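Postdoc handover notes: sequence design on the structure in folder B. Input tokens:
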């Protein structure tokens, strides 16, 4: 199996669709979900887990820090693999149907199950704090300014 670091950073682009409705409602942490066709095209080497990176909504948006979950969300017993991106920015409106560009810059941890919703929330908050610190590193800031975010078409 190819080393996961060799495929990162990974640039992903696709339309935002309605997800399970758990991010905002159950967890208080809104997520943007990709169409299933985008998730299905992700490299097999990108294992289920929690990642950090950069995200931009639409062509006019600003590139923001994000962390994301890729996998089956065992706590919720998903039957289908998903990619749910939490953009660390307070958006005033939903942006379903918009194009979301994400640079997956690094891996935080493998996907895991939790015994309670509170345990899951604590893990997510820890992931967000890790993301905020990691993306302030100079080598990570370079990804924020990648042409992928500046062009209309992008890579993926």
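Designed sequence:
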């Amino acid at each position: 199996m190819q080393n996961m670091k060799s495929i990162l950073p990974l640039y992903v682009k696709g339309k935002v669709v309605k997800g399970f409705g758990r991010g905002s409602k159950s967890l208080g942490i809104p997520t943007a979900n990709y169409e299933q066709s985008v998730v299905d095209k992700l490299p097999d080497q990108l294992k289920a887990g929690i990642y950090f990176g950069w995200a931009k909504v639409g062509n006019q948006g600003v590139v923001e820090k994000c962390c994301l979950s890729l996998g089956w969300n065992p706590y919720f017993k998903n039957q289908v693999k998903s990619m749910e991106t939490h953009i660390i920015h307070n958006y005033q409106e939903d942006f379903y149907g918009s194009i979301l560009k994400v640079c997956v810059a690094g891996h935080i941890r493998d996907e895991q199950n939790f015994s309670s919703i509170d345990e899951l929330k604590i893990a997510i908050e820890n992931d967000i704090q890790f993301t905020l610190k990691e993306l302030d590193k100079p080598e990570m800031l370079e990804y924020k300014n990648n042409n992928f975010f500046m062009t209309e078409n992008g890579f993926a």
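Context for whoever picks this up: The longest strand covers residues 99-110. Don't rerun without checking with the PI first.
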